[in-house]
Structure formats: structure tokens, C-alpha cells
Amino acid sequence: WQAIKDIIVQHHGTDLVHFFYHRALEMNNQDQGAVHSDDFRYPGPRPQSKEAGIVMLADAAEAVTRAMPQPTPAKIRDVVAQIVNNKFIDGQLEECPLTLKELHVIIGVFCHILNGIYHTRVAYPNKQEISHEQDSDPELAEKNAGEPPQIRKNGTPRP
Asked: Which alpha helices (DSSP H) does the chain contain, by range?
């Protein structure tokens, strides 16, 4: 259980909470002297294990892609790469033993998973449309009685 507790504590590292930091800057007319970024950072510690680093990156990647209005594979790839790069530049991964090669693999795996979650789906006909088609063709209704509808590649029911 300790390993899980450690990951929970470490998965935000000392990240800047951007939303609240930028809101504070706006409220103070962009005066960076009045607003200190350290006041808007998680207390840490930074990830100490590969697993904690991966959870940090996964949490951020999932949150950002969930908020995207129309995620496409290209947008997902760009945002995941940007997240990993920003965490690296900010020093969030300095205490965890992930290599650059592993970070590239992580980006690819995250993109594969997120594209699977957010891919567009075919609009399937609803039951009323299928029933209406069968009602208008008695021979078809008799033939398909009790059988699940056959769907064409374009999403329409097959007679």
C-alpha cells in the first residue's frame, strides 16, 4: 500500500496550478511582482519512481484531452508531446529514473490509448428507424423477425 500512497503524493510533483496562477495575475494586472508562482505550486515531492512519473504524465494527458472540444489524432499527439515536454522542462521528472527513450514510448502509448477513447464513432440508426423500415416492407419484417439487424459499413440497416 505504501507504493500507492507514494504515487498519490508524488503525481502532482511541484507543478504550477496554471489556472489559478493566471487568474491571480489577471486580478493583479499581470504584475508578476505581486503574484509569486511558488504560491501556486503543489508541495511535492516530485515523482521518485518511474511509475509515479508515468502517473503524473497520464493524469495530465487525460485531463487536457478530456477538455479538448474536438480531439483528433494530430491534436492529441501535439498536446501529449507538449505535456511531456513541459513537465521535463519544468524539472518535474528530474528525480524519477525515466529515460528520454522511455518518454518517447510513453507519448506513443498515451496517444494510442487516448485515440481509442476519443475516436469518432459511426452514428447507428435508432430502433424506430429500423422498425419504420421493416413496417414499410412486410416481406422484410417477416424475414428479419427475431433477428438482430444487419448494419452496412455506412451505418444504415441492411434489408
From this structure: 2-10, 18-27, 50-67, 73-89, 100-118, 127-135, 138-143
Per-residue pLDDT of 1-13, as tens digits, reads 899 999 999 999 9
Q: Which residue in 98, 90, 74, 66 sits closest to 16, CA to CA?
A: 90
The label of the residue with cell 496562477 reads 21
Q: In this predicted model, what pLDDT tens digit does every residue of 68-121 receive, in sequence order?
A: 998 999 999 999 999 999 999 999 999 999 999 999 999 999 999 999 998 766
Q: Cα 121 vs. chain centroid, distance in angstroms?
A: 17
Q: Tell me: pLDDT of 150 over 60.
A: no
Q: Is the Cβ–Cβ distance between 114 and 106 less than 8 Å?
A: no
The CA-atom distances, in angstroms, between 40 and each of 1, 14, 24, 25 are: 29, 9, 9, 11
**Distance separating alpha carbons of residues 152 and 149, to the nearest angstrom:** 10
